[in-house]
């Protein structure tokens, strides 16, 4: 398929070319059973609204829906979303045109959305002992060689806004996540105090539930009543993990 430049594309459809976008590459190959009208969009900047994505992707062709995945309580964007076109041809063109486009400080990654299945089970990793100056781009460089990264997050201190040395990386396949664990778990990174600790996030979730049970039991025994996990400092949870796992 012939790859168009941004200027050529927007001239063709009669729409002014957005200055903040820059095309750098084409799309992914199509696997059997994939909905060729539904795309997953990764690396969406935090404060992007659905309306902005609709404007960008709607230039290619008519859309059925656009959704950015967010925390249902806080509205915090997870940095990825889904775009569904009315026609498969428009979805294919969107990958060719918009994959790699620069949106503010990020480059969108656009590809076909694969249906969830067993190959994605246990593909989300919980990483600790990261350098305190780590960025999401550093996470891409560190983990990207092991497979397709669907989502990555660096947790930050609520008060200072600085990285806590903790993050998550979700791969597209379980075997990619396992490869990353095998290669990087225990690796000493520059500027890090301790070697990397990487585990499957589902296991981490069970540990967090255990911690909450432990805290609630302690509060009940001391007459404090049950309190939400958010009431406790993150360092308390991290220290508890070190003592119990």
From TrEMBL:
Keywords for the protein's UniProt record, in alphabetical order: Nucleus, Repeat, RNA-binding
GO molecular function: mRNA binding; poly(U) RNA binding
Lipoprotein is among the record's keywords: no
Location of the protein in the cell: Nucleus
GO biological process: negative regulation of gene expression; negative regulation of mRNA processing; positive regulation of signal transduction
Residues annotated as domain RRM: 37-115, 123-203
PROSITE patterns in the record: RRM
Translocase found in the keyword field: no
Main location: nucleus
SMART domains with a match to the protein in the record: RRM
GO cellular component, one term: cytoplasm
Protein name: RRM domain-containing protein
